[in-house]
Amino acid sequence: MELLRMSWTFLWLSFLCIGGGLGIIPELERQTVTVHQWVTAREFLDGYTLAQLTPGPNMKVAAFVGYRAHGLAGGLLAAFAMFVPPAIVTAVVAQRWRRIRGRPWAMTAERTLAPIGIGLMAGGVYTLARSAIHDPLTAGLAVAAALTLALRPVPPVAVVLAAGLIAWGTR
Amino acid sequence: MTRPGLARLTAVFAWVGLASLGGGRSAYFHDALVTRRRWLSDEEFLQDLAISQILPGPNFSNLAVALGFRLGGFAGAACALVALVLPGVLILLALAVVYLRGGFTAAAGSAMHGMGAAVVGLIAVMSARIMRAGLRGRLPMLLAAATAIGVGPLALPTVWVIVGASVLGLWLHRPRASEGLTPRGGA
User: Fold this and answer.
1) What pTM did the predictor assign?
2) Which residues of A touch B136 (CB under 8 A)?
3) Is residue B144 domain-shared with residue B119, that is, in the same domain?
4) Residues B147 and A171 sit within 8 Å (Cβ to Cβ)
């Protein structure tokens, strides 16, 4: 029962993510910490940091909260509720969009939305930079990573792991 | 454009997911699917980027679903979602076990911070490539810049920014406008 209520909470929270997950962080914290008390405020913050520093979408913080509250089943179920329902909507829209996009209003909508999508992405780079770059070492690693990728088609994973090693070594 | 099979698609999306420390960053997909493998054109990618950013839901996974659908229908979308999300969730759960038992060593923390910083540099380059491909003409540049400033430095609520930029964009693209983005190819 409690598992169901938690899944429902993450499900409706997932539909509040528009243009990126950062916008729903305040509501996510209110629900999980204040309303349902699945995690403490400190655990929520640490869980979000872990979600940011592990591969994949930030919103997998839901899995952290679910695990804290209800163990492995809770973690997997919370992730399912966060990712699968919006994915179904996206797949259906992606399919329909191909059929309607030839119409004039759809072309106008697309010409409007494409630059907004790019703008949201660029704004996200800014926001992420503010949280990830806080001293000369992190600034240097960011610039070095950018130059490496700009000059050579190296695999991003290799660059990320190398930066981790350097930060660990120069601590 | 060559289109991959499901196994190849799953492997590449899993790799993108694993490389995307610091939170899901859509630009990783442009690098993996357009720049490196030429499975998609810039136009197709930008179409899916717009859809995924506008629809509700975590938009990195939504983008994976939209791109996966384009490359392999509903099966492709399902493989894309699982490949992108599941490895990270399992890694996070493993770390959660360690964390809830008593925390991390400082060494692990600084390595993670270094990796997070490198990700910023990578996505800056990848995003610049997408901008170069997708923003042709003054109107799209203006719209993208207004949106980026709104959600970035001004830290306005994303929903307001999307609504405001959409209204502005629709007005700027009202019928007389014939410039703007070049006509779209693709599906």
Assistant:
1) 0.76
2) none
3) no
4) no
Convert the pLDDT of each residue in A140-157 to its tens digit: 999 999 999 899 888 777
Number of compact structural domains in chain B: 2
Separation CA A109–CA A93 (nearest Å) = 14
pLDDT in tens, B110-145: 887 888 888 888 888 888 888 888 888 888 899 999
Tell me whether 0.85 is exceeded by the ipTM: no
Integer Cα distance of B144 and A121 in angstroms? 9
Digit-coded pLDDT (tens) for A119-143: 887 887 887 788 788 899 999 999 9
CA dihedral (B148, B149, B151, B153) positive or negative: positive
* B1 within domain boundaries: no
Query: Does B109 share its domain with B25?
Result: yes
- Look at A115 and B111 and tell me if their CB atoms are within 8 Å: no
- Domain containing residue B91: 6-134
Whether chain B has a CB inside 8 Å of the CB on A11: the answer is no
